[in-house]
User: Fold this.
Amino acid sequence: MKPIIGINCDYEEEGKQPYSFTNRDYSEAVIAAGGIPFLLPIIKDKNDVKFLLKKIDGLLLTGGNDVPPQRYSEERHEKTVCVHPDKDISDFTLVETSIQTKKPILAICYGTQLVNVALGGSLIQDILSEVKTPIIHKDSKNERYTHAVTIEKNSLLYQIIGADCIEANSTHHQAIKRLGNGLKDTAHTEDGIIEAVEWKDYPFLMGVQWHPERMTDSPHHLALFKALIKASK
Assistant:
């Protein structure tokens, strides 16, 4: 039987009918890897989240706007665009409850930052203004760039991808600053920005800063979703 993979939705309500949504690339990547995608709307009740998690086999945390910096005891940078307060509550409830129940997790971009903060870490709120780097991590016009990512050989990520350097897309203006409890830095760019993390003492928890769902024509990137499916069976 194919595992069911829960995918957290984004949420908007400003100037329009409130709605939950996510980019189709995420569900298509899950399908391509052999799973069944199941979209998760905003749910703030912890008991409801616990019940829902019993119905899914793994969790895919998607990209989005920014984690509210009060979550890691910092003032908001002018470039920080926080997720909707309801999504913030829903996502943290989802992550914390999933970790308690050891649910397999693959986190992407904002999802990786979310996991890091949920585990006690902090974030660089704006790479461009806080880090001296020649690498474009996110263009002001939101164009899609790629850059090299170096992968630690002593990591699950290396075992999954099978290479110590890959080309990855880049559309993030934030990054991990202080690692969350239990997390290990497993990939980085030449400027030192953390591009991937994993939790060694967890059944399967991996986060990447790029968007592999947009690059599934490459076996390196599709392999991440296949690993989630395998861990969720």
Q: What stands out?
A: The two ends are 8 Å apart (CA to CA). The mean pLDDT is 95. The chain is about 30% helix and 25% strand.
